[in-house]
Amino acid sequence: MYVAGFVIPVPEKNFEAYKAWAKASAALFREYGCLEIVDAWEDNVPGGQQTDFRRAVAAKPGEKIVFSWQVWPGKAEMEAAEAQIAKDPRFDIPADLPFDHRRLILGAFTPIQVMGRQTGTG
Q1: Which tens digits make up the pLDDT trace of 28-74?
Q2: What is the pLDDT of residue 93?
Q3: Which pLDDT band holds residue 122 (cuts at 50, 70, 90)?
Q4: Are the beta carbons of 71 and 23 closer than 8 angstroms?
Q5: Of the candidates 8, 10, 31, 58, which lies 20 to 30 Å from 41 by C-alpha distance?
Q6: DSSP assignment letter at 1
Q7: pLDDT computed for residue 120 by the predictor
């Protein structure tokens, strides 16, 4: 198992557009071997004393935070998919993307503790 995680500032007015984009994107990632994608809309994102999700992505007034992750079979599978995705025009950044992709934070992680799911390393 290998996990890619994202923190995305999305204008609240773009909620429906984001949901549609996320659903379409998930179908494409599934074609490339992604096992699971979760997109979660902000419900309780408190401000911190030193840092927080909002400051991390320079969220503006009227923007909500989306916390998203992808589960891949392993690191090698995700990296192979990324190489193919880079060549797939369906993944070109559309002009009507419902968020500012330049402020998105992403990272990939090897799980060290998993509860409720079969684990494997990749």
Answers
A1: 999 999 999 999 999 999 989 889 999 999 999 999 999 999 999 99
A2: 84
A3: very low
A4: no
A5: 31
A6: -
A7: 53
Handedness of CA 40, 42, 46, 50 (dihedral sign): positive
Q: Are strands 2-11 and 105-109 parallel, antiparallel or unpaired?
A: antiparallel
Q: Has residue 114 got a pLDDT over 80?
A: yes
What does the alpha-carbon distance between residue 80 and residue 37 come to, in Å, rounded to a whole number? Answer: 18
Residue 103 — φ and ψ, nearest 5°? -105, 5
Amino acid residing at 100: D
Q: What is the DSSP track for 50-103? A: S--HHHHTTPPTTEEEEEEEEEES-HHHHHHHHHHHTT-GGGSPPTT-SS-GGG
Let me know: does 106 contact 57? Beta carbons within 8 Å. Answer: no
**End-to-end CA gap in the chain:** 6
Tokens 């007015």, residue located:
13
Structure tokens at 57: 């992505």
Separation CA 77–CA 69 (nearest Å): 16
Question: Cα separation of 30 and 69, whole Å?
Answer: 13
